[in-house]
Records
---
Amino acid sequence: MEWLMAGVERDLGIERRQLVPAEGSQLVALVPVRWVGALKQSWAGPCPRPEGVSETELCTLLQRSVTKLPNGWTRVSIQGLRKSRLARWLPQEPRTPGPDLDSYCSFMSHVAEQNYRNLWQEAHERYARPEGAPAGPGSETAVSSCVQALKASLSKVMACNFVWVGPGGSPQREESPPPPSGTPHPNLLPAEALLESPEALYLVQPLPCYTLRDALNFSPAKLASSHAKVLFVLYQALQAMQACHREGLACGGLSLAHLTLDDRLFTQLRISLADYEEAEGGGQGEREGVDEERLGREPQELWELVTAWVHGRISNFTYLMGLNRLAGRRSGDPNYHPVLPWVVDFTAPHGKFRDLRKSKFRLNKGDKQLDFTYQMTREAFAGGGQSGERLHVPHHIPDVLSDITYYVYTARRTPRALLCRHVRSQWEPHEYPASVERMQAWTPDECIPEFYTDPTIFQSIHPDMPDLEVPAWCGSYREFIAVHRQLLESPEVSLNLHHWVDLTFGYQLSGKEAVRAKNVCLPLVDAHTHLTSYGVVQLFDQPHPQRLVGPSWAPAEPPAIARRPQQVPGPLGEQARVSGPVPEEEEGREPVGPEPAGDLEEGTEALDSLSASEEPPSAAGPLLGRASQAWGPGDREEGLVLLPEGFNPLQPLEELERLGSFLTRGLQGPPPPPPPRNRPHPPHLSCLLQRDMQAFGAFVAEIFFAQQLRPLGPEASLADRLQAVGRLARSRLREVAGPLQQAVLTLLPPEEGAGPGGYRYLPVLEGLPPPSPSLLLSPCCPTIPFPAYFPGLHRLACSFRAPGEGAALGREFVFSLWQQLERLLELVEPEGLDILLPFVLELLSAEATAVYSAWYLFEPMARALGPRGAQRCLLAPLAGVYERPGYLAGRFYLYTDCFVLQLVVRLGLRAFLASLLPHLLQVLTGHEGTAEGAGLGGGLEDETGPAYGGGESKAAADYLSSGPELVESEELPAGIFLGEAEAGGDGSGSSEASADEPGLDSEPKEGPALPSPAGQDLRLTEGPLQPEEEEEEEPEEEEGATPAEDAAALCPGLAAQECEVLRESVEEEDEELSEGKEQKILLDTACKTVKWLSAKLGPTLSSRHIVRNLLRLLVTCYFGPEKQQFVVNGEEDLPCVGSVYKHRPVLGDVAARPVLDCLIHVAQLYGEPVLTYQCLPYVAYLVAPGNNRRLNSRKEAGLLAAVVLMQKIIVYLSDTTLMDILPKVNQDLLLPVLDVLTTPLASFPGGAQARSVLGVKTLSLIALVCLRIGQEMVTQHMSETLRRFFEGFSIIPDLREKMGLSEGSPGWSGVPVADVGGAWDLAALDELEEVFSLEMAFSAYIPFNCLIGDATIKRVLWNHELVWRMAACYQEEVSARAAANPATPSPDSSDLCPGDGVGAEDGLSGTFGSAMVGNRIEIGPGAPRTVSGSAQVRPSSLPLDTQEPGSLKQELGRSGRWLDGNWLAHWRYEVGRGQLDQHFHFHQIRLQTFSGHSGTVRALCPLDGEDFFLSAGRDKTVRLWPLYNRGDGTSTVGPRLTYTQHRRAVFSAQQLEALQQVASCDGTVHIWDQFTGKPIRIFDGFDSRNPITAVAATPAPHCSLLVGTSDAVLHFIDPRKPGLQHEFRLGMSTSAGLIRCMAVSPSGRSVAVGFSSGFIYLLDTRTGLILKVWPAHESDILQLKSAEGNVLVSSSTDHSLTVWKESEPKPLQLYKSLSDPVHAFDLHGNEIVAGTVANRIGIYSLDGSVPVATSKLSWENFRGVLTSLAVLPAKRLLLLGSDNGMIRLLA
């Protein structure tokens, strides 16, 4: 690598500090982006140098784990090749493209031709020229030809020319080479530049983020989930190799590090140029003196390291650094720096040794803390397993060395900016550990090598950070490094270091041993699938052997001579220590010295048993002789032999056996020495290509033996890799995936070795030519069975790598992918969908392709994934597309009814309502995403705290990932504005739908709801949006989508065609739509879709999910000061003089128009109760006084929204309803609003403008009510309201009079608070003075005076004189201005009291007729008029309401779906339920009757969307019924479609979710279209002697249909193909009985079969293996249902209903019926809704959490015998079929 470093520095001008060696004979360089871009065309000069970057920061930036680089800089990899080393490679003529091997004929022809050629060549080489050899390597011509051939091949493969970087320009050539044509293969890592100097060739490539080695080491779960992922990676690698081989270029000794991949598993191959060079010293001496070389160098392979360390040939430091290198740790990488143990704690002189049996994390945190962490994470993981969220798995430690700890360790040498970026954003130098003792005690992580080798790590480069202090017993940094290194090499550490290795690199990182050692490391167990380039690597799976430091009784140093205790005056001094600062004692222990006499005697007695041994005492050697001579005369005992403590003569043998066992089991033994070989002839290109295939076989096996092959290290040669892999493949082949076992055996060379040239396959290998990429990629080749869909999947993946992808191509790019995807999904399998999905998700996240990807790709992908898979994979990305803020072209596509129908069908109704419907409704207000709302909402604050929308930025951020969420709780009070007697209905559900039912509009505590955006900017279109005319819809149109419309939305090609129609209709006017036009189209499309959806969903779902969210959205329309600005009616902002009934809209009214339009449409569809029972309580909730007297921005917007909504409601209420609710309107709505409007205690967040808008709209609302009820009713019901409003004009004059201030005095801001009153708000006084002005007095007094008369208004208003005087003053001022400027309008009585127009005929009675209703006297048109008359609203140029301007009343128009009778009672109950109540409550409310069958109804099946259902009967028909509300519950509905192709009674009808077709069976299986009723395929090939007894459909994405016959055979049918797929025979004897029923699991991977004998068979649908058989019941099984979580429910004629867990032998729940068995049931969430032949309905729980509830069906609600049952889960309704052919819908 030194020559490459020097060459790059010399030829390319890159400084050495910008370079770092990397794996695979390459350099990593930090270079400018512009410099790299210029290299492709010409030499751009030497590389610029980074300025102002320190050496430490450069070293950090060069690490692969660091992802953030300075702007304008990038990392590249540089490979070099010396031209003089290319002579050993003999090029050949350019190869012609190989034959197409896709067809069987061409494949066999190629095999025969190639085998013949290979056999001939082998015979020719063996017999014709056995000694022939090409020219030798010294030929200058050979070198030149090799260089030119290699350059030509590289240029073609990389699609770029070589650029000369040598001095004096490029050498002379006849002509410059033409620029390469085409693009490089997508699976080849592209070249940034190809450079040539006089001595070398350079290949500059982008540095990949992740390699296949990284994925296997640090993210093994990425590839562990399926074999298809591994096969796809290998398929792409072979594609890249094929591209290289076709150009005559060998790829080199491929390894796992040569394959780069991303999170989508898109793989690119990096060519290795180093393998083209001739080895140093030639081939003859290549293997000579190998043993001598190994003795003179440091060991490189793991078995060498272990052996050398155990025998003491290398130091502890060298061994540990070697382990770090083999684990992939990189010096200078903060995320993956080498680690060494802290061996002492520095508390005592020369330190106190730590316990190496425990990790540093465990020593710091303690066992209690680690046990707590493990237990809590285990409980969290167990609790979160059902939710699908990825919680932390049980673990003890997060990592061995974190990046923050690394920066703290090296803080003295790291630049300040880097520390602030990674450790702490604020510079606090005193918070870093001041001493190494403090640092060791503080950190839970291990040490780094710098504390053993580098004294400069203590020296600070920061002026305000002192140097790192060393212990007091060290005089300098160098002394500390020397002592610390000696401590690492001390015997105490050497004897226990293997324990630390087990914890950090060994077997205690996984399994039970890790749990026992409290060493479960999070990166090893979290099964993360994201790619990373660092982590924790386990090198050993066996206990590490101990270092052989000699027996304790024979140490390397001579022991101290023992003396009598009384002769030793004290502890042994320093002179007794071994040389060097080696610690000898631990805290609390006595110093080493002579043993006390008592201990010696006890030890002697313990060894007495050895005296009888006949072994000679000479084993002790001269040591015992010297020890015995130390005792005085007479002290020795004759015949007593004293053995040293710990004496074990078998110790060396045991240690040798342990080492051998470790090397054999853990490292598969050291590789045998290679056989000597002669110098080979220069290999031909074919040899190099065969070497590529053997390298390919090696890394195929390395994928599965990655852990066992880690001892080889990343730099192992290909020969060593082949040896190790071959040894493992022959002994442990079962660990390789089944599809690749044959490939490994075929590709790897045989054990006896290679041929004379090396890397040579046999001419014919198992009947095939030697393996090549083209051969292995052929679908006819059996070596690697690639799935049939891989070519199409590979083409789609490569299209993402095409130039100009995505962002530049936009719709055309997505359209082309859609065309590929439609063909691909016909072949792809579920495992292939996991590979395909990341590519689609990337398009959904890109701004340029998000909308078009959702439009084109969602339906085919969701169809293939099924509802469960689509919810898991596509729901969150789709929500992100809807949330995306800003302007996106074509956005209105996502709001069309056909796309929304696809969402409902493919995701499921409940998932759509919960997650996507809020986004669909949110666009009605112009809010395009929460991010925009959060950005514009900042800074709005009230005096009481953060403003609504400003302080909720975190909620807005959370909303991006979890769906929209309402920030403030909206628990609405219970309340009904109609009495029970007037609400309608037959009283069957009165107890449930009473006025006291709580939770009318309570907010859910979980699940998304609409957000409360803060001040989003509404993009106004050119001019006001004109409302559409309301038309009374036909009954068929009100029912939502018809079956034909559903078919149009779900046909694969029809969505694209409709997209083209929509796009072309827009582009005919203008190819590039302006933003305003796009916004208008988006708004109109969303409105139409919401109206269509409200009809499709029905009354209960529309009220729960549409109306509730629309009411919340209405508040957001008025949020923020910009939404409260009046719209200018003319060119100048003229004062609005005259009638207050003129429309004075604000910008919020424009935004609220679509919301109000949709609300009124729902009311027109389902009747007046939508307004009175749902909208009016929400208005009361908005205006209800809060706990805090101060207003916030949300309360302010709520008041405006409440008044506007009330105006809309009043117009559409009937006369009777209006008079009934008028007292509540006054008490609960108008008076609270007037209290807020006239209060001087609190100011408005929007200031006087907001109070003015509220005043004008409140005055208009009061006037509207008064005009509706007439003069007499105004005097009777509205006097208090009028009095409270006009009292606002007296607040300021009374206060001025009290304080003695004149009327012309300035504002209240300078007045002392104490003078006004401590509770009064000075800002509120300013607002009141501005709002209740002369103009307001004139605008309010004159109309009401005309309406109720002068005498009445004087009697009602106590401050009449003041108001009249203010109105007169204003009239005089305006008249004076009009005289001076004639253009100024003046107030005229004609504006105030007109004599014609609306209300002229019935001025006294408003809109009422001439009749007496209740306590109201209505005066007819013939009654005499008074002078005052009723006022009329003048039309405005910008209408606000959908009615004609000035109209007082509009009819809703009674449709066929108005709520009445039982439907109204059920609707009131459902709307009153809280959103958290998801239980099924059965109240026997009859809603609909379906009549058409003439015999027993055998089966019921609701379709997706719950707007249609199927029924099968004994009358040989299957019928399709609509599920829309009609009448009052007593009406009868006929079928929409009838299928009449059956010849016998139909006993089963099911929907095939994936195909959107129906499968019905009468003994013959019919597949037919559910939208048109036309048959598609009929399966009648079953044996008549064994009729069909049960049918079950597999859930999407599976398409199979399971058919059980009476001979206990399970047949699989693919409705798309004729004939049977396969069949499984279940019962081997007649004891099992007949198949009665079947249930397929929600995942589609298992099926439960119930027999007449009571047995249940559980088998795998993919393999047919029987997983479990058990006697579930004592008699016939009637029905089976499968639920989530491997739960099975069965019912039997033994009167039992049982809940089973597939993995448990005993039932979870057992319900027993004493009277009759359960013969029909269905599942609703966690509940079972069951029915019996005695017409009893029971509700049971799957887990027993809810008590059993049963009820008997009444004769009025259900007649006949119950035969079938089905639950509508979203609508919470029940379909019941009877023996008389009638079907009832009950609630």
---
Amino acid sequence: MIIISRKNTGLLGNRYGERTLPRRFPETLFQLLLSKLSKNREGAALLTRWFLRDDNAVPPAYVLQPITAHFPPAGADLGPQRDAAALGWRDTETTLLQLLRSAAAGGGITAEQKQELLTSVLDRELDRGLLAGGGDPSALLFVREIPRQRARDGPKRLARFLDLSAGGVLDADAQRLLGALRSRLLAAAPPSLNLHSVELCKGGVDAKRRDHAQYLDAVCREFVSQMKAGIATATDGRRGKPWGSIADEKKEISDGVGADVSGTDGLLGNLCGTDGLLGNFCGREGLLGKLCCAIWESTNLHHGPLVVHGAAGAGKTALLCRLAAEMRSVLVAGATVVVRLLAARHPHRPDVHQVLRGVCLHICLAAGLAPPPSLRAATMPGCLRDVLAEVSRRGGTLLIVLDAVDHLSDRHVAHKLRWLPTVLPPNVHLLVSMDTDSEAFANMRLNFNNLGSFFEVERLSADEGRRIAESNLRSSRRTLTAEQSAAALRSFESTGSPLHLRMILSAAKRWASFTPLAETRLGASTQEMMSQLFMTLEENHGKELVGGALGYIALAREGLLEAELRDIMSLDDDIISGVYRDSLPPTPSLIRFPPLLWARLRRDIEDLLEERWTHGVAALAFNTRRLSEAVSARYLTSERRGRSLRILAEYFLGRWSGRLKPVALPGLTLLLADRKVPPQPLWFAQGLANVRKLQELPYHLLHAGLWDELRQEVIGSAEWLFCKSQVCGLSSVIQDLDQCSQYLDCSETSLIRDALVLIEPSLDLLDTHMDMSLFYTELLARLCSLATPFPSLIGRLCSHCEEWLLTSPDPSLVPKCSFLPPPGGALQHTLTGLQGGVLCVDVGVEAELLVAGSDAGVVAVWSLADKQLLHLLLGHTGAVLSVKVMASSARCLSLAADGSLRGWSLADGQQLLCVQEALPIDSAPSSVHLHLSDQMIFVYTRTQVKVLKLDGAELFSSSSCNDEEDADDDDEDKDGGSEVLGVLGESVVSLCASGLVRIFHPIDGSQTVETRQGTSQRRLTVVESVTLPRRGKVFVVSKSGFLHQISKTGKWTANKFPLVPSLLSVTEDEKILLAGSDHTLSLFNIERNSVDGFLDLQHDDSVLSACVSSDSRLLVSGAADQLIRIWSVTTGALLDSLCGSDTPVTSVLLHHRVVVSASTAAPGVLLWNLTYDPRHKPPAHVPAGCAHVAVARDADRVFYVRDQSQTEVISWDINAGCMSEHLPVSAEVCSLELAQDKRLLFCGLSSGTVLIYPLALPLETLCIPPPPSLSRVLCVAVGGREKHVAVAYEDSVGLFRITNRDQFPTVEGPLDAFPLPLLQAPLSAMALLSDRRLLYGTRCGQVKLHDFVSGSGVGLETHRSSVSCVVVGNHGNHALVGSEDAVQRLWALNPLVLEHTMEYKGFLLEGVLCAAFSENDQFVFTGSQDRTIKVWDVTTGNLLQVQPVHSPVVKMETFKNGLVALSQQGSVIREVFHCPDQVRHDYNPLRNVRAQYRVTSRDRKTQDGSGSDSQNFNPAQLDLDNMGMLRDKPSAACRIL
């Protein structure tokens, strides 16, 4: 946010101020003044002695000579001589002023010229500012008056408050001018005029006196209040998101380095001005012409980017900016030009994804396009290509200029340029520049073979240098003498570098015509020229001051604000000691760096600096990277660098704000003084972050070696992590922690960094930005289990998060255990970018590329080395069934359900070939095969084979796979088609209907081999087949249980095979056969003529995928239970189980100890590192996707049935993380229910029996026999106070009593029962009240309440879909009925009345799975299909909290003042709920999700129970009838970013 203050602020006391001697006179004015002194020859001689004519000024001027020109000792430390020189100068200055004023009084000069001689600096400033244009209405003016002067307070005592002459007497002329100034100010009468009167005491103001203290307090109070009021007025309506927040990036297109060429206030307008980078651009006409011609010729064609390269300082930036400006006349009207100067913020190196994001949004805004739906970091290269294609499709013209791409950050391996589009559509042009000796240029030459796209910026010629020098000097209204010009050009000709010339001209502008050549200090190279400039600065200002100021600017990560630089130099004791070497500070208790010294230095280094406007503030930085490097080399020695970094770190820590800092001044002992530096809070105000602290502090703490402070203030501060992730993006925090890990040997830092990496996909899933409560919850849910083993950082971080959540002003759920994948485990990264499930994956080993195809028809390409998305390959209109990386890793093929085969370049993502009818449409993934030979592509299914050339030309196609030449002679094949078994080399192996196997070459029909198994005439029913190219065989498993080996020579053998596999594959070396069937994965040794089994690996669920390492030592298997298992091939031992996948694992690959896994039910590809630290292995949990579960309320045990067909109940010990007990059952389990207090586990079986396990008596089992009808059990419900239990069968519901006999639990009954109507849908959920009423719902949405006491029942409001959960409050007063649709109803039970209807619609899955009331029944918790836990207020029905947990919650129980739940993934969730007494009226529970909800409540004023809208407005409650409209255009009230 830009803080705007008042334009003019004036403080006027009783001094008129200094009337200084002018430094420069125009020639005509000075000659006129001299003519007035014609009679005073001595005076005229004195003037001509001190003012010399400078013919280098245009027009010529007379310049005041430095004091050292005539008083040499004045600049030396010579004690008395120095004082004498200073006194002599004062007398000379007074004499010169008197001469000039007397000459001006003679007339002949203008009033403005006379004002420069007669008035003070203060008078002129007030006149030009506050009094300009009739007065400034926003001005703030303070005027102080001294009512009377005591006789004893002579002029000497009042010297600080009155103007005195050189003789020490009161300056009457100054007092007269002061009176006139006051009269003009009072006549202007600004609105904020403050008059104060104070009587001085002993020539000053004494704060101990009461009247003086009141005066000071009044001045300060008025100043602060009026300044705040002015700021508030100026910023009214400007409040928004946190300053620099990523939530505002979609609106803030310009990031300070780019603008549209047509913008009047854009970058190019600034660059092309007379004071800008291009104001004096000359030369390079030939290169500019070549670039313009290349752009023009490629306008209507697909083409590649243009590359401009050259040595550092060769002028590439100026050339590209001039080209961008010139393209206005070349491109069509309305063309969009986007410029990014990537080296403009050195030493900061911009992140490539942030650059691409800004470019995409810039283009969309300029071209009138809708922003891409997803601007995630992983998809940015693809988004840029889509935007460019859309601009071209619409006929727009676009030019993108990216300067210094070699200066991008190393993050995301930007220097490899994989993000750079290699082929551009028509009317879209891209220019990039880089240094010739950079790694980026080397990669550019490797990636792009077209040498015509490379343009080198060569050295400037002597003539071009002369023209540039003349133009530059002319714009500065300067010139050079012939000798000076010749010397400058000779120095430049040795290099021909524009930067060298720029340094020469920076120095030459300060040369006067009388400056001797010996004092020009020219260097033969750019480096020497910089050294000469530094030496000149050191002579004028001192080495300590120059080195300190320039060093701090060079060390700053994002530059320094001018106020920050003055503050930091005030904290530097070496600079302060140098400043006050000869005199004491005016106030020893308050020491600041004198602003006058900085003003002098700033004037002399103005040509070396630039102002970078970032986030509304101007930061100082060097205008070239080479200059920053030269400053570092000259001034920042190891010792100086460390000390400066420490001062910078302490400044941004705010360590010395309001504290006294010691300093040792010459001639004094240690002095404690306040340096008056500002505090550095993390937040200036709510929602307004201290961005400067976020940008600078981590870097300086790290490199200053302040690692304890780094751990405390940055790494271990949850507030810091959240604040920076909100303002600068989560990737910026990860980048900071990456740098910390390079210097700190701290495992906790790496774990926190990995936790943030795991959180990053959550932001992509939410498509929004986390607020603080959700961010803290995510951290706690991942790091909670690591708090005890790592207390110093992670423990403190978790404590901070928990403490904040428990005291939050808003409702919040506080995790009490880790239920999300923790960092440090095997799961390293989630590759995102695809939509839909992943059907196929392949790895290009040489280039380390991963290719995956999704059911949405998209092929994604990632780099395994840097985990970055390289390409999204679009073209298929059906699910991608198979992908294959070709041997060179430069190309890949993809087959899709739309019947097409497409070839792609992995280098640039371009489509190389397309065959539309390569296979039957809507083929199944398991039936599609893709085989590559040296010259041909084979695409085959069970019924069809097609052979293509590598360029896509069709060579052969057949749906019967019979050799047509032999078809007429083979009568036995006419009764049916054939089945393709595989391809060996270039021969197709097919099985005919008669049982004949034919092996033939599809092109020429040669080498046909036919074979049959013995004399058998029975047709072979194929289950699975696999080819072994090295052995020249095909393995076929038949339905009859045999493994058939068919060789290329026709040899056919068959052996009994122990299983019918659903998965069949061989290892790369063809030594091991893998066969998966149901829960078993079997391994077989492949011998020459036999296959022998040697391992059977048992799984808890169906085996879906498997692969073996290249050395055949490790086996990786994926199963439907969402686990990845690592086995030893030699011993069969289970080495590891990797949990963290939320879906069944349908694909696995093993690449260099990294497991790649994917699922047809998830869009992400997971990377698992097998070399992780086992100490960080996440604890084991309940298997995912259990058929039935029950959770103990104290969260120590979970009971589950893995499969519906499983005949045992397993008890899981949560604390130990393992199975503790197996409870056998006699039939399939249909329901599990746990009586929490009496510790009884009820298991309803398909036989109608209910088994009851007393958990306190492990060896005992109770039984409720089945009903006479032997109906299966549908539901079991334990009543309130656990006195009764209801059992629902298919045709009836029975009531039983739970009691004790001889301290042994028993179940008696049935006490009562009622039949269920035959036409009623089966029960799906029910709850038993303590008064023996049963509330139940059915699969068709009916809800009924049956009273066992009276035998009567009543129907309640029906749901539109199956009732999924029915729960009753702990006190029996309320019940919640939830269904699979978006509606849930809260009923009051005494009396029976509908309290609230809560409708919730999200943009993902809907429907309630489970629910639980809080202990006091004040809240109700629900777990939903959309992978969230929601909290509702029972009294009002309002939604209080929505917490994403990344997996559907299938079971939930009350836990103390919160809940314990079990996710579908098998993780146990323990949380407490914090809710303040009053929820603020503008609180929105949907701020972190994309959803809407509505609550309809009964009118409590009427007792008829009629429904009416809730009177309590909530900003998230919206009309759900307009959901379709909201999906197209989400409301800002419900989609909180």
